[in-house]
Amino acid sequence: MKDRTGKEDLDKNHSSDQSYLALSIGTPRSRHSLIMQLLKCSFIVIVILALTGSFWWTISISTSSRGRIYHGYRRLQEQLVSDLWDIGEISVGSSRTKELEFCSQESENYVPCFNVSDNIALGYSNGDEYDRHCIHGFRQNCLVVPPVNYKIPLRWPTGRDVTWVANVKITAEEVLSSGSFTKRMMMLDDEQISFRSASLMFDGVEDYSHQIAEMIGLRNESNLIQAGVRTILDIGCGYGSFGAHLFSNQLLTMCIANYEASGSQVQLTLERGIPAMIGSFTSKQLPYPSLSFDMLHCARCGIDWDQKDGLLLIEVDRVLKPGGYFVWTSPLTNPQGFLRNKNNKKRWNFVRDFAENLCWELLSQQDETVVWKKNSKKSCYSSRKPGSGLSLCSKGQDVESPYYRPLQGCIGGTQSRRWIPIEERTNWPSRANLNKKELAVYGIHPEDFAEDTENWKTAVSNYWSLLSPVIFSDHPKRPGDEDPSPPYNMVRNVLDMNAHFGGFNSALLEKGKSVWVMNVVPTIGTNYLPMILDRGFVGVLHDWCEAFPTYPRTYDMVHAEGLLSLESGQKRRCSTLDIFTEIDRILRPEGWVIIRDTAPLIESTRTLTTRLKWEARIIEIESNSDERLLICQKPFFKKQSS
Fold first, then answer.
1. Does residue 182 contact residue 239 with C-beta atoms inside 8 Å?
2. Nearest 5°: phi and psi at 539?
3. Among candidates 244, 180, 238, 234, which has minimal Cα distance to 206?
4. Which residues on adjacent β-strands are paired with residue 621?
């Protein structure tokens, strides 16, 4: 039975094979279809094998190169950067998307949210037209081009004293015009603006600074550090000469001034490498916490302090630390002018009386300069004369870190745990290293702070290890330039988009880098800005779905750690392309971008850099396999707009 069954099966199979063969031979169309299917399958297998081999080849190169990233051998670093660049190009391949167009040449100084003509058309007046008005959802997604004759700024500190005329929008008339006396401390020729004022025909900022120190009771401005002064808010700063001079004394000056379409104080101050941002004393509170600065300075700054019923002076008091100083230089304060102008005397009397109601002590008055000292003790407020009209803000009103709120008519900052007189704070540079008691004010454990500090020291060393061979080998040199000796001052103006504790800033200074950092705390994150300012740094609150209050081409480096993760965790408010377009606007040609975030976010963001025409590299972090570095450089494009 078994043999019989096997024979029957064999007969059936033989019959089937004959039928199939006959069918195949008998139908040419079926034979052609079969051949095509076989060819397609073969092609797919070949492609899969090629891609798999390319993938493993890429991984093997990346893995073998990774261990050499953090070694100090310059030749190996140069080869590594070249390899990673090639790998990045391969990984992007056909996924390149359309590059953004260049903006028109009229947009070379474009600053969103500060369009005076549009604000006037919308009905703003009485100074409000110069204030910040952002229109949500409106984005100019094009690349802002530099002026026709733009040149890379000179390295610090040379660039502090000499800038290129073509890099900023300014006329000879604006250079020579009156206004802040620091505006007059400059000379203009065909190509350069010089701020070296050795000639007797110019006012001396050194003598002026010396006078202020003496009025406070100090020998000279170098003793301001010992008096508790480290950070200064310079209102209407001219072109930054006051801050440029004080920088040599380890004093950090932040310039703020109104938006100006031409002859901008902020633009030229940043071009010199001095901290500055657009800010307006008009109708809104500044984006700084209460009790932020050790001194506020106004030298012919154009602010009418007697206007708006004293609201502007209340805002000065809010951002001034207890025991801090307010310095005002104006013809209005000159007693000799009172005989000729009774109105000036009336205005001066209002400011003097209002300052007394704020519990400020008038320390000294010389010529056109007046120095007040803010009270150090809260008990002064209860001992004021009855009916002074100025009340303390309630807890609901006393917001520690307002974000462009309307000006308040009450005295702020009195509810804060940070009410510590400047003379009781640790002097700079020890101030940057907060102790256990000081950290408790911000709710931070000393272990977390110490760990953050060490992590940033390592990160900054690695950043510079990676960038050094690129800057000094691939970086296009200017004629006659040689590699500068340490500290490498190709970078001066740095913006940290998500500053956390300010550890990046601290590590840069500890490494001896001659930089200053704008520490930005996103409004959607945890607010550590009060701590950053108390450490002796400068910074500001900001919403990165809005334009940053600065002019194009003002920063040499933009850094962001964890910002993409922070933004991706929010309800979709704006696109990553919007944020990156804004980075491109404020970044100087040949400037650097360092993004540190999770591997998936970095990989997806890498494709955006091609749209911005940036050169980009993805680098693995040896100590953390879950994160990546995206290092980019913005090319220097000449005039490209039509």
1. yes
2. -175, 180
3. 244
4. 624
Task: Give the H/E segment covering residue 498.
Answer: none
Closest C-alpha among 526, 508, 527, 525 to residue 516 = 508
The whole-model pTM stands at 0.81
Q: Which residues contact 137 (CB under 8 A, 6 or more apart)?
A: none
Q: Which residue type sits at 384? A: R
- CB-CB contact of 250 with 428 (8 Å): yes
Indicate the pairing of strand 293-299 with strand 320-329.
parallel
Greater model confidence, 543 or 123: 543
Could you tell me the two tokens for 145? 């081009």
pLDDT above 50: residue 411:
yes
Token readout for 608 is: 């955006």
Alpha-carbon distances of 295 from 172, 236, 317, 350, 392, rounded to whole Å: 32, 14, 10, 22, 22
Distances (CA, A) of 266 to 254, 300, 363, 551: 10, 16, 30, 8
Q: Check if the beta carbon of residue 192 is closer than 8 Å to that of residue 149.
A: no
Instruction: Name the residue with higher pLDDT: 149 or 26.
Output: 149
Q: What is the 3-state secondary structure (H, E, C) of 167-204?
A: HCCCCHHHHHCCCCHHHHCCEECCCEEECCCCCCCCCC
Does the pLDDT value for residue 53 go beyond 90?
Answer: no
Q: Which residues pair with 521 in a beta bridge?
A: 541
| C-alpha Rg value of the chain to the nearest Å | 31
Q: Locate 202 and state its tokens.
A: 């110019």
For residue 401, count CB atoms less than 10 angstroms from its CB and return exposed for 0-12, middle for 13-18, buried for 19 or more.
middle
Per the prediction, the chain carries an average pLDDT of 82
Confidence at 57, pLDDT banded by 50, 70, 90: low
CA atoms within 13 A on the CB side of 311: 14
The two three-digit tokens of residue 562, written as one number:
């964890």
232 and 243 Cβ atoms separated by less than 8 Å: yes
pLDDT tens-place string over residues 21-38: 343 344 555 666 787 777
Q: What is the pLDDT of residues 353-400, one digit of tens each?
A: 999 999 999 999 998 999 999 999 998 888 887 777 789 999 888 888
Written as one letter, the residue type at 355 is: A
State the DSSP string of 100-127: PPBPPGGGTT--TT--HHHHHHTT--TT
Two tokens, residue 384: 């004021």
Nearest to 468 by CA among 496, 444, 487: 487
Residue 26 identity: G
Tokens standing for residue 411: 């005295």
Answer yes or no: are the C-beta atoms of 615 and 474 closer than 8 Å. Answer: no
CB-based contacts of 263, cutoff 8 Å, min separation 6? 169, 170, 171, 174, 175, 177
Beta bridge partners of 79: none
pLDDT at 230 over 60: yes
**185, 199 contact by CB (below 8 A):** no
* φ, ψ dihedrals at 25, nearest 5°: -70, -30
Instruction: Give the DSSP H or E segment for 516.
Output: strand 516-522
Ordered DSSP codes for 238-289: TTSHHHHHHHTTT-EEEEEE---SSS-HHHHHHHTT--EEE---SSB--SS-
Phi then psi for residue 280, to 5 deg, are -130, 130
Q: Do residues 106 and 146 lie in contact, with contact meaning Cβ atoms separated by under 8 Å? A: no
Q: How far apart are CA 323 and CA 203, in angstroms?
A: 29
Number of helices followed by number of strands (H, E) in the chain? 19, 17
Token pair of 450, please?
A: 């110490």
